[in-house]
Description:
homodimer
Amino acid sequence: MGNRQIYFFGPGNSDGNSKMKDLLGGKGANLAEMASIGLPVPAGFTISTEVCNYFYENNGKYPEGLKEELEEKLSMIENAMEASFGDSDNPLLLSVRSGARVSMPGMMDTVLNLGLNPKTVEGLAAKSGNERFAYDSYRRFIQMYGDVVLEIAPEKREDPDPFEEILGRKKKKVNARQDIDLETGDLKEIIKEYKQMIRKRTGVDFPDDPHEQLWKAIGAVFNSWNNERAKTYRRLNGIPHEWGTAVNIQSMVFGNLDDNSGTGVAFTRDPATGKNVFYGEYLLKAQGEDVVAGIRTPQPINREQAGGKDLRSLEEEMPEIYGQLVGVRDRLEEHYSDMQDLEFTIQDGNLWILQTRTGKRTGFAAIKIAIDMVREGMISKEEAILRIDPEQMNQFLRPVFDPSQKKKAIKEGRLLATGINAGPGAATGRVVFHAEDAEIQAAKGEEVILVRIETSPEDIRGMSASSGILTSAGGATSHAALVARQMGKVCVVGANGLDIDYRDRSIEAGGITVGEGDFISIDGNTGEVFTGSIETDPSEVLQVLIEGKLDKDQSEIYRYYEELISWANEIRKLGVRANADRPNQASVAVSFGAEGIGLCRTEHMFFEDDRIDSVREMILSADEEGRRRALAKLLPMQRDDFKGIFEAMDAMPVTIRTLDPPLHEFLPHETKDIKALAKGMGIPVEDLEKKIDSLRETNPMLGHRGCRLGIVYPEITEMQVRAIFEAVCELAGKGKDPRPEIMIPLIGSAREFVLQKEIVMDIAEKVQNETGQQVDFTVGTMIEIPRAALTADKIAESAKFFSFGTNDLTQTTFGLSRDDAGKFLVDYLRLGIWPSDPFQKLDQEGVGALIKIAVEKGRGSRPDLKVGICGEHGGEPSSIGFCRQNGFDYVSCSPFRVPVAIVAAAQAELNERKK
Amino acid sequence: MGNRQIYFFGPGNSDGNSKMKDLLGGKGANLAEMASIGLPVPAGFTISTEVCNYFYENNGKYPEGLKEELEEKLSMIENAMEASFGDSDNPLLLSVRSGARVSMPGMMDTVLNLGLNPKTVEGLAAKSGNERFAYDSYRRFIQMYGDVVLEIAPEKREDPDPFEEILGRKKKKVNARQDIDLETGDLKEIIKEYKQMIRKRTGVDFPDDPHEQLWKAIGAVFNSWNNERAKTYRRLNGIPHEWGTAVNIQSMVFGNLDDNSGTGVAFTRDPATGKNVFYGEYLLKAQGEDVVAGIRTPQPINREQAGGKDLRSLEEEMPEIYGQLVGVRDRLEEHYSDMQDLEFTIQDGNLWILQTRTGKRTGFAAIKIAIDMVREGMISKEEAILRIDPEQMNQFLRPVFDPSQKKKAIKEGRLLATGINAGPGAATGRVVFHAEDAEIQAAKGEEVILVRIETSPEDIRGMSASSGILTSAGGATSHAALVARQMGKVCVVGANGLDIDYRDRSIEAGGITVGEGDFISIDGNTGEVFTGSIETDPSEVLQVLIEGKLDKDQSEIYRYYEELISWANEIRKLGVRANADRPNQASVAVSFGAEGIGLCRTEHMFFEDDRIDSVREMILSADEEGRRRALAKLLPMQRDDFKGIFEAMDAMPVTIRTLDPPLHEFLPHETKDIKALAKGMGIPVEDLEKKIDSLRETNPMLGHRGCRLGIVYPEITEMQVRAIFEAVCELAGKGKDPRPEIMIPLIGSAREFVLQKEIVMDIAEKVQNETGQQVDFTVGTMIEIPRAALTADKIAESAKFFSFGTNDLTQTTFGLSRDDAGKFLVDYLRLGIWPSDPFQKLDQEGVGALIKIAVEKGRGSRPDLKVGICGEHGGEPSSIGFCRQNGFDYVSCSPFRVPVAIVAAAQAELNERKK
């Protein structure tokens, strides 16, 4: 432990600053920073993350001296705020909040209004001159403390919250529409019922001692670091469990004190669109949680946002306070050079700032803000690149609804409601009402829309599994909106026209009922909700680049995209290629900036209707002669396929992999298809069935595939290589510049490679002699089974390049079938056995160790060995970082991941420079 | 190249000796040695293996100076033998033979009688006074040279050999029963026809120039090093291709000169039984190849062998020569301290020794000879151990026919014929007539007996695939007998009562016809051949050790076995354990000398009739509660299983692996079984089918198995661990000393192990508390997937032992399913991609690299980590050597491999000492 365990902040006197996030958490560091730069921050202090770690390492005990230090800092708050903790005349009330290094919204616990008891509540009433306010605060405090510290929860999933049940019953009884309609007497009765219920459920009285309240609340916050939802959140977001949380204890200020009070949250720029406008919401006579929880629909902070709606903005309601708030906004952006998310409270006409942090934003907003800030001279291009999550590039490519289809849906009366556009893109899927159901359905391959009144942190996994999220309550800063924005999900919130009934599992709106399993469609750009499914249209970027429907001048979005890609291209050194099997895919990849093809799978061509017959004839031939006859028919087709690809990729490298999948994949498995094929081939069904049976494999992943086919049937490799070189020589003869790289799959022994390479060299020479064309080419291999990595030195003696097939390498290194892992993947992630799905993020520890061995051994034999990756990981940012660290020449990914890979490659480069 | 390329040997003047096998090959080195120690060796010289390698590296060119050196040595032969090469009055004739470092019988080419032409043949006739002999020699020379150098062969597999065709036609015409019945005139006509046929097929005349003959023959021998059958032989026997062959050129001596001449082969001891008797065969008026080729049935060299048969032995025929031969035998055994295989020729009453080499022998003979030689004071125990191929220990355990069954078969008239007992043991299987068919049928899992008139080197792969080998021609030194002895195959040769017809694919004998696919049974101990199959009885060793049917005093064989095992146990340091799942298997293993159980698979117990229902109930339960109910029923059964095993293994370690196979392996797959199960469970068939379908996996090898089961269903691990500890504590309470080692399978991440170990520790503590017994135990893991090896340092932080599951580790390292590899294994071996089947011999380069990483990393974290192996390789000698080299503590193999492992472990130790 360091000496200091608790860090004070308050007007002109902060122990910490914004650089101390590791120790103070993000919130604590920023509170200290804000106090330092003169913003109006209620005094408080932060118990450091080191105390949290001590707490966990010592079975919930606190380090020595903490109590004394806390007492000392508490009296500093009392001095700053001119009130006394536990004093029955002039009571100081405190908030107790978590605060990790990075924000984990809603994941951990908070207690507000701490310090109230039957005596201090009277003091608060007297001091504020507002008895209702004091008892309302006390009611809220008991409820929150009961939930967080005493852990009082519904006994069954279907049951209502016990506090909400008492509150709801009372509201009904006195005919109160909203909480605010309850009178002091009602509140006192509610408090009494709360206390009775607590005594009944816990066996002890609700504590009156403010110090007991404080220490128990601190313990609850520390404990909440390890609750299930926080652990899930950390896993999903790659946050180490060892970081721990700080605890922020701060003087309460009251947005619910009187008509001159309120509370709100704001972003210094629009977090959905990235527009440089001040954006936020507030509620009069409310505490902060009311805005975020979405119980009352909040009002906009300025006229611009209010639009035509019947809502009074803060700008109109309290112009002076609004002016101060704009000043705070400017000061924060200037100070932090980034878009900030802030919380404020107005108490009796005074503005207090309770929190600032880097604001979450949509992918597009992130990019727009970063680029705008470069244009505004606030940050460098490099800084802009580093601020973007490369995954956000996906959002440029998100579909939107086909306008004519949408118009038609509206005409047909299928527009069910309109809510707030909280996550861009268009999504269509089946309705589910519970997060668990979303997970289950998604695991089955269903596209689902999770529909909730509002979401809560327990729903995270289900949100992650859904194609879209729709809520009927809550605003643009509600939990659903925040999380969806972060996950890059299509999201509509606050569609309060919807009546959602969890018990009936149905939605009603304007007489239309939508049941569980029915299709709905949501537009995250406009907030519209439709019944049924609606066809989607490609994004603007795709319309410019691929569809040619838009000119780049017509699309501001496209111009942002283009600028960003050009900066990333300036920075990165890692090459970016695409995995593409057909000429049109190759063209798309080039449009996105791919610099070559890293994987062209020849077998996909085999499935085309006019080819599969010859392929099957080849497979079912009794002998080599028969196979050669069938292959001869395939040759001209394969040659034409390759010609198309080489034309699309002129002067760029094209890595063509020889046949990889087991032959049985090309044969029919349904009885009727088998019958049809037997008839077509003029052979008895039984003979065909016998042949198909003889090709069946116990573990096809580990069976007769890859180069093992070319070894046993060299005539297949011969045909494919001939097709490639005939295409290449023909194009070369026409002045084109085809650049083939022949790649042999599933090599496990150097000799396998040597034997297949001999065929390539032999056929290449023959075709060159036949055509009189001389062409450059290389022959290399995939490294996709551990033995290849372990004997890479020998393989590299004859292979000119390695391309890591990390899908198969992950399967073999883990002994894990991608097709079967689903059954236990969820448990493995839940239990923290795997930090993430190893098929999504490269397992740097295990698979990465083999890759390092292979690169080192390979370059040991052949220093200029070209090294790339063509597994799915080639488009995943953290895996791309790994590739850069290990000296790869390029990554190759699916065409639509190319923009992600370009930005990730630039980030990887900047991260390398930092070292 | 060294200076000397050619090494002379002859009476009292040898350039080489028996230590120079690398350079001179085995034959050449021994000829030089024999000449040195005064044995009568015809003069000759050896062209070294270095010349062979030069020849291959320089496209068939010879090194400079070779020609001159050859001329010089040739004149030394001429001086020693008092004859001149190419001289028409007193011609020297030569033999040209291959000679590799180790013997490769029949694999490479030989030319005899070289130097004959129309002039020298007349000189030979005059000199020998035997015109018929001279022309017979010339006929043989042309035929052999035509075959070997001119490569004249049948055009189709079914065709007769063109030389044999001419010869046969002539014999028919003149009514000659044997070659010896042909007269000089016949021979001259045959020679003419041979030459015409050669001219027709090659377009050139048969060469008359002796020097041209000599150089072409040398080239042919060098080329024969790389013919297909030689390559196959080297692959099967692990002989490096780089060794090359020497060429031995030696003065001819003639066993076919006159009635006072002959030729023979002999073993200094009986190669089949190991008995210390001089054992051999000879033919009068014959050349060496006649004995080996089995064309004429040879005669025994002494009375003892002749037995009651109507054959005159050499001892009777030429007592003086026989006496000299016995002297040679004594001199050779004294000089080489090992059983020798020698070739001799008697020319006109003079004995010549043409070759000596270490004699091939049966497994049992090898052991008996080695032990006898220790007893005779000729060699040390260590030397004896090193002389044995550990695989030969298997022969002690070979079955014999059940005597009553055999008696019954004889009574039923099923004794078809009796031949020579050439490979011990008893075999029963279906008849095949071609080596290819043997391979094909064996690949399908059929036991086959390969039936041939005689075998040839082309048949090796088929012989290897057969359960037994039966020939109608040839003797105890024929190709079939030699190869079978070496491979350890059951073999009967020379059963000349059988009339084998390849075209009809049938055997006839005494009116009985046996067709292809019919069962026959052969007794390799007695030479008997039966129709139909006969039940077998365990070996004498098993009858002493396991069955208790014999007392050790009654079995000399057992006493040899016991002595050898005791020597091996004195020497070895590597522990030997067994893989055993049931108490009776454990007892067998202990009888063989196992020092513990290295792998007890708990799942095999699950298949017992009374358990499988509960297992299925557990698998098909909808929830944890249902699973726990079913597991509770299994608990007492598993506990009893473990009790039995711990009792059998008292005070020895027992490594128990928790459940490993995917759950679907326990469910029925046939429709009728599914129906029966559904009925038994009282659920609809469709529901059961759906559940079975949901458990089906694409790649079960890489699916939900191993510790992945215990992670998802911890209750399974809990039950198994409880069963173990309840058994252990109960036995400990009775004063027994059970020593459990709990092994978690298929670990890929350290955290998987930690989570499963927590369960083990928790349950172990509970059961110990419940029973009041304190027991010692350890928890460790299998290392069977690459990721475990790569992260072994982290796993070893909590695992106390590693046991390499090399079956699965081979599958994952190669990306190769053992169940599917059969489809291309043959091609992979043929093409030299794999030196041997990696599931039989550990792949030291690839899989071995991972094992080294794992041991190094594991012992880095935990220096006293116990390391073992429990894959099939744990019983394979070369793999055991690898384990010893890498510091393993023990190997574990199937109970019947324990004797092999014990001897291999002793050898491994002796090999380590040599370093």
